[in-house]
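[Meeting: bench + compute handoff]

Bench side (C.D.) handed over the final construct sequence. Compute side (W.E.) agreed to return the predicted structure before the next meeting so the bench team could plan truncations. Sequence as handed over:
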Amino acid sequence: MSQIVCVIVNSEDAARLASVVADRNGSLKHIQRARIVLASSERLTVLEVARRTGASRPAVWRWQARYAAEGVEGLLRDKTRPPGKAPITTAVIAKILALTCAEPPGEATHWTGRAMAKAMGVSLSTIQRIWAANRLQPHRIRTFKRSRDPAFAAKVEDVVGLYMHPPAHALVLSIDEKSQIQALDRTQPGLPLKPGKCGTMTHDYKRHGTTTLFAALNILDGA
């Protein structure tokens, strides 16, 4: 059975609601609310009011009740909502950054997002956002090696000095190598793997093991 909610609208309110509907510069939400109340005053079913105004049935019930309680003014005013969470202050952000760069708690190797969020009383997404904005990645570590050779500094000076001030009429080359290069014999490169298709290679494809590439750079002119 269709539900009918009859809203009694006096002539003054009806004229005011009609002017709201006719206002081409008015807010669409105000126009829809006025149309809901005007249609409800015609003893239409809630389903028919919703169909005419393009609103949901809960919306029809809500604005019928709002008009009955507060009149036209209630339709033209949105109820205030409680404020959301306060934004993170700069002091809290600074503390998070300082704590991130400090030693992790206990026996942990680094700060995790969840551990930091629990320690600071904020959400994980807040920690992730602050870390991303400041380019902090506590889970990443770059290793380095320190020589134990007591003559390391003197050797470095000799090598660098040779590069910076080579002997007269001397050719100083910087040599490097790249090993484990596949020595392939083929007339043209194969096509890569694709969804629904396997990779391809020419019929004369052959492997000749691996080879090593050596390169020498003249440090004076870059040749």
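W.E. noted at the follow-up: Residues 11-75 form one domain. C.D. will use this when planning the next construct.
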